Amino acid sequence: MFDRLTYYWQRFQRARQSNPLNIILGLYLRRSFTKAGFIQVEAGWPLPHVRNAGGRIEVGNVSFFPGVRIDCWRGALVKIGRGTYINRNTEIIAAASVVIGADCKIARDVLIMDTDQHSIGVGDLVNKPVEIGDRVWIGSRAIVLKGVTIGHDSVVGAGAIVVKSVPPHSVVVGPAARVVKDLRLEGQG
Q1: Prediction pTM value
Q2: DSSP reduced 3-state for 12
Q3: What is the distance, to the nearest Å, from the Cα of residue 147 to the centroid of all Cα atoms in its chain?
Q4: What does the CA dihedral 155, 160, 163, 164 come to, rounded to 10 degrees?
Q5: Domain ranges, ordered by start, for the chain
Q6: What is the spatial distance between Cα 70 and Cα 128, in angstroms, rounded to a whole number?
Q7: Largest CA distance in the chain
Q8: What is the spatial distance between Cα 57 and Cα 97, in angstroms, rounded to a whole number?
Q9: How far apart are CA 59 and CA 108, in angstroms?
Q10: Which residues participate in catalysis according to the annotation?
Q11: Which distant-in-sequence residues (6+ apart) come within 8 Å of 169 by Cβ?
Q12: String of b and e for 83-104 (b: at least 16 CB within 10 Å)?
């Protein structure tokens, strides 16, 4: 009971501090989602664009910045947890499933996709779910590709191309997105 009251109080406080235009834009964008919490859209052009071709898009209390694009294919799922913000010109493309946890920070120009968007050669189109854990930071112009799981409390450096799963509490950088340190070990020793 107490947690629910705290949640609603914090939501009320956040709404009170928001620019009314951001709330109106959030209400406008909300119609594009299957299920949505409090949505705030930062003013600016172009407005976020959501294309739902017959999937499910569920978002918690989320902030979107101008130029964000979400593309959800038939039967796919896009799920974004509460407290997450998605910065300018980020694209999320889901043919199967893209799940982003709570309190994530996604920087400008990030691309997250669970599909190649077309078959390669004579093979079939390959779609593999993407899962991003809670409290993950993704730097500008990073690319997260199909089949990747990024563990909670991790950081993906700017420009990283993530093609393999990332364990929790990790920092990954560079075009190969290799693990450079374990955040659990920081501060020990």
Answers
A1: 0.85
A2: helix
A3: 15
A4: -40
A5: 2-182
A6: 17
A7: 57
A8: 10
A9: 19
A10: 118
A11: 151, 152, 153, 154, 182, 183, 184
A12: bbbbbbbbbbbbbbbbbbbbbb
How far apart are alpha carbons 111 and 142 in whole angstroms?
Answer: 7
Which residues of the chain, if any, have pLDDT below 70?
1-2, 7-8, 11-18, 121, 177, 186-189
How far is C-alpha 8 from the chain's CA centre? 23
Tell me which amino acid residue 156 is: V
77-90, pLDDT tens digit by residue? 999 999 999 999 99
| pLDDT per position as a tens digit, 163-181 | 999 999 999 998 876 787 7
What are the tokens at 22?
A: 């951001």
Q: Are 162 and 178 in contact (CB under 8 A)?
A: no
Return the structure tokens found at 121: 């050669």
- Spatial neighbors of 127 by CB under 8 A, at least 6 apart, are 95, 96, 114, 115, 146
Helix (H) or strand (E) holding 26: helix 20-30
Q: How far is CA 145 from CA 50, 125, 170, in A?
A: 20, 14, 17
Q: 2-182 in CATH: which number?
A: 2.160.10.10
